[in-house]
Amino acid sequence: MATRNSAARDSAPATPAAFADIDALSPQMRKLGAQISLAAATDASVFIIGESGAGKEIVARAIHDASDRRNQPFVAVNCGAISGTLAHAELFGHEKGSFTGAVAQNAGYFEYASGGTLFLDEVTEMPPDMQVHFLRVLEAGTYQRVGGTDLLRANARIICASNRDPAASVADGRLRQDFLHRLLVIPLRVPPLRERGDDALVLAHQFLDTLNAQHGTKKTFAPRMLEAIGRYDWPGNVRELRNVVQRAYILADALLDAELHVRARGPQQAELRDGSLSFPVGMPLDRAQREFILATLAHHGGDKRLAAETLGVSLKTLYNRLDLYEKAESGPAS
């Protein structure tokens, strides 16, 4: 069986840290936890909406792990990274010789996820023509590999996610309305970290406890770091918080210190106002480019295809840049 394309991930189930200590979380997250339990009891499609880094895949995994499919695969697919010309083959598989380069039979994501859950991340970036094929599978429950004649039965629970408003995606032609209707059976919203009260402090302690347990250490937060965590609005949400805690842990001997590791707003921050981005004199060129790319992406509501067009680069180039920025946020491997 061929190796999965990089657009899909089937890693070992992660502990859903956002729900590890549910009694200590905010009312918004306790409500979401209850909704997750209700969704897990069915096989209905779930559409998770939330900002980048808010924890949409954690929610998807929590649904999977609480469902009857928990012992079957959880396959995550980045719809924005699926090649337009090979999308059908990637999703549904292909037979040997069905096209140039098809040197062996290959299963698709539906087949990999059979019996389990297929998580479609950034579903609003799925190519429109691919949405048509996907809709047919959802309606008929069967599909064929590219170049094949056998009907295969689709047995994967569909959970999808987007950081864009799905109604707006339909309005601007990015998402088919009939496709959305099949996906949006159970809508769930993941609130951004800034709306979740003291959750940032709860999660920061959970992340640090995990790191201490993994490495046999007893590092703690400096009081001023806890103060900084509590007052920062975390535009990168849970992902940014996790990266900050990990970076602080790596660099600290015993005490994680906010002054070094939590980004402060100051003269070296670009400022976005009325659709214009201003840079302070002295900002490094690579930092200015990063701010410009992220501001353009935010301006287009997270639509990477439109942002790439505006920037005059390919979608692949934009994804490569964003991957570099995320790795930089994560810091060196521990």
TrEMBL record:
**What GO molecular function annotations does the UniProt record carry, in alphabetical order?**
ATP binding; sequence-specific DNA binding
List residues of the Sigma-54 factor interaction domain: 22-250
Q: Does the keyword Transcription regulation apply?
A: yes
What keywords are assigned to this protein?
A: ATP-binding, DNA-binding, Nucleotide-binding, Transcription, Transcription regulation
Q: Which InterPro entries match?
A: AAA+_ATPase, AAA_lid_NorR, Homeodomain-like_sf, HTH_Fis, P-loop_NTPase, Sigma_54_int, Sigma_54_int_dom_ATP-bd_1, Sigma_54_int_dom_ATP-bd_2
The UniProt entry, under SMART domains, shows: AAA
PROSITE patterns documented for this protein: SIGMA54_INTERACT_1, SIGMA54_INTERACT_2, SIGMA54_INTERACT_3, SIGMA54_INTERACT_4
One record GO biological process:
regulation of DNA-templated transcription
Q: Which domain of life is it from?
A: Bacteria
Q: Is Transferase one of the keywords UniProt gives this record?
A: no
Which Pfam families would you find in this protein's record?
A: AAA_lid_14, HTH_8, Sigma54_activat
UniProt-recorded name of the protein: Mutant NtrC-like activator domain-containing protein
State the organism of origin.
Answer: Achromobacter arsenitoxydans SY8
